[in-house]
Model the fold of this input.
Amino acid sequence: MISQTAEYALRAIVFLAGQEGMPCTTAFIAEATRTPAGYLAKVMQSLCRAGLIVSRRGLNGGFLLKKSPEELTILAIINAVDPIRRYPECPIGIPSHGRRLCPLHSRLDEAAAMVEQAFGQTTVAEMLTVAQKHKSACRFPGVRSAPS
Amino acid sequence: MISQTAEYALRAIVFLAGQEGMPCTTAFIAEATRTPAGYLAKVMQSLCRAGLIVSRRGLNGGFLLKKSPEELTILAIINAVDPIRRYPECPIGIPSHGRRLCPLHSRLDEAAAMVEQAFGQTTVAEMLTVAQKHKSACRFPGVRSAPS
Done:
């Protein structure tokens, strides 16, 4: 339902949010979230362009969250890399339809709106709060130490 | 939220359902639903393999629905060509997670389940019923005559 790209972006952001401000390299995040490093590098660029993360150069450099986990929603992350498609007007391009969608596209748009609402109400902080309650089931696999 | 492939499959099936048993060629459906014919041909093959439509050969041949619009759901069409992804177990492959999903994947799975439920309760017949009530906004653009 969401793309692989969006899923990798979510893994990376949730992981970063758990690092308490420590910059992390792509290789480090890729290992921890079990994501292909080359693919993840492109995803991280998209997240930078969207202003969700920043890249700090130099020794001990890496990526950092730009927003706090409390204000960052799942929806914002998905929409930064592979937006949920809505149907503001007839996608078939029938002039007489315009913004009056046919029943099929109305139903698809309703479902997309429902998912947008659910993801728009879920913050990254909530993902961490639940993770702390059930550590064994929710944490990313341990990584030995911060990258140097 | 659903792929372009799934959207084209839905257009084709809803169109076929409105033809009252008249076989339609790919070219005819592509014109009516404003879908690229080459792309649609592959989608129609997938729908055939999934048993949702059948192909009748010969003069006046074409595709026909195999199931009635009343028993065919939007979910069945989407799942025939590009299934909605569920998370029966940890997609990161963390052995200790197994079927106990982390909060992120739990949330993604909940949203997928919500969409599955909505689409599973919506039949192609409903798309037609609403279309007949609001003809001007819901019908595919007119095509001159059945293909020969």
Notes: Chain B has a mean pLDDT of 84. The helical segments of chain B are 4-17, 26-33, 37-49, 74-81, 103-120, 124-133, 135-138. Chain B touches chain A at residues 1-2, 7, 10-11, 14, 33-34, 74, 84-85, 91-94, 96-97, 100-104, 107-108, 110-112, 114-115, 118-119, 122, 126-127, 130-131, 134, 136-141 (CB under 8 Å). Residues 4-83+123-138 of chain B form a domain with the Arc Repressor Mutant, subunit A fold (CATH 1.10.10.10).
